Amino acid sequence: MNTYFLEQLIASPSTLPADTSPVDLAPCVLTIGNFDGVHLGHQAMLAQVRDIANTQNLHSAVMIFEPQPREFFAPAKAPARLTNLVEKQALLAEHGVDTLIVASFDDEFRSLSAQAFADLLALRLNVKALVLGDDFKFGHDRTGDSQFLRDYGLNVTNLHTVTDDSSKAARISSTRVRDLLLAGDIDSANVLLGRDYTMTGSVVSGDKIGRTMDFPTANINLDRLKPALHGIFAVDVVSLDDKGRIIPHGLAKLATGKKTGVVGLRPHSLFGTANIGIRPSINKAHNWRLEVHFPEFEGDLYDLTLQVRFLHFLHGERRYESLEDLKAGIHQDVKELLEWREHQQIS
Q1: Separation of alpha carbons 52 and 101, rounded Å
Q2: What is the signed CA dihedral for 64, 153, 156, 145, rounded to 10 degrees?
Q3: Which residues on adjacent β-strands are paired with residue 29?
Q4: Adjacent-strand bridge partners of 103
Q5: Range list of H helices, the chain
Q6: pLDDT of 283 higher than 70
Q7: pTM metric for this prediction
Q8: Is the dihedral angle over the CA atoms 235, 237, 243, 245 positive or is it negative?
Q9: Structural contact between residues 215 and 293, judged by C-beta atoms closer than 8 angstroms
């Protein structure tokens, strides 16, 4: 999949349609949206794009926004992210997208009129057809919709609401997935996602408080304003190469001495206990953290890219009155999660 940032393709969107020469993109079928989570509803949209593209000998393309619009307008009130940009890129590639266009959602972009946006699609991005949700709106005045694009001369297919088998009236949405993850119902969230929920990030330096309590952790960069799930979890973790591929036994190979860790539930993984939240017991700035402790493991994991798969929710974050109480609480959490691990089968 080829990824383009709109600024690389278009010097200044606000100049449209004065310069109407198309950029060097293959003629395509495009869908547009946040695609946060790339859940089953999104996957149905992508399947429709691929079908039309194959029939008409076009490329399949997706336009997403960074930041997402609600993050731009009200970052403090924006919904938690299911997927950061890197995770979203990987998932869209898995679902056969040929071209990803990342549009910076800023003052200039949001000021585009419906006419200018349609010109951008047809005259600059080589869009020949679109697949859109039935409630899609665009343009600073919100006058753009599917009919506007049809009147403009583009072929538009509307995909109606996708529901799941558990409730025919329940729309599959990023909001539903977020609500399930926040409640710790990982299995139900996975059903709507059509996959296991994971997060990917690089290991960065932390404040090393866990090490002082004999529970060293890998501090994993979240690369989002706020994560979609909070609390204490059982996880399994794999190491990824620079192309996003799992490195065979990547973590175990880095073990020092005999502390090689506890085998995870998927190939090439190690089992871990994760805390994701703001660490209310630590007297420091409450920024969001994902910290993973690997029982019975010693090794240098800095700068690795790790993919964390969430397996089991133990409980929400708790506030402890002292570091000794915190240490005792972590010890109990690790004990309970290791006991849970003993009863699971490797997939």
Answers
A1: 19
A2: 60
A3: 60, 129
A4: 65
A5: 6-9, 40-56, 69-73, 85-94, 107-110, 114-119, 146-152, 174-182, 186-193, 209-212, 323-342
A6: no
A7: 0.90
A8: negative
A9: yes
What is the C-alpha to C-alpha distance for residues 276 and 67, in angstroms, rounded to an integer?
22
Alpha-carbon distance 42 to 133, whole Å?
10
**Residues 61-96 pLDDT 10s:** 999 999 999 999 999 899 999 999 999 999 999 999
Question: Measured between alpha carbons, how far is 335 from 328 in angstroms, rounded to an integer?
Answer: 11
For residue 164, how many other CB atoms are within 10 A of its CB?
16
Number of CB atoms found within 10 A of residue 188's CB:
17
Return the number of other C-beta atoms located less than 10 Å from residue 339's C-beta. 9
Burial 87-108 (b: 16+ CB within 10 A, else e): bbbbbbeebebbbbbbbebeee
The answer to whether 235 and 309 have CB atoms below 8 angstroms apart is: yes
Strand partners, 133: 159
Record the tokens describing residue 105, joined without a space.
């959602």
The structure tokens listed for 336 are: 């309970």
Q: What is the CA radius of gyration of the chain?
A: 22
- Tally helices (H) and strands (E) across the chain: 11, 16
Answer yes or no: are the C-beta atoms of 297 and 250 closer than 8 Å: no
CA angle 233, 213, 333 (to 5 degrees): 25
Reading the block at residue 189, the tokens are 């969230």
Nearest to 13 by CA among 93, 152, 157, 123: 123
Strand partners of residue 62: 31, 100
CA atoms within 13 A on the CB side of 257: 6
User: Can you tell me the distance from the alpha carbon of 293 to that of 234, in angstroms, rounded to the nearest whole number?
Assistant: 10
CA distance 170 to 165: 9
Say yes or no to pLDDT of 220 above 80. Answer: yes
**Would you place residue 140 in the very low, low, confident or very high pLDDT band (cuts 50, 70, 90)?**
confident
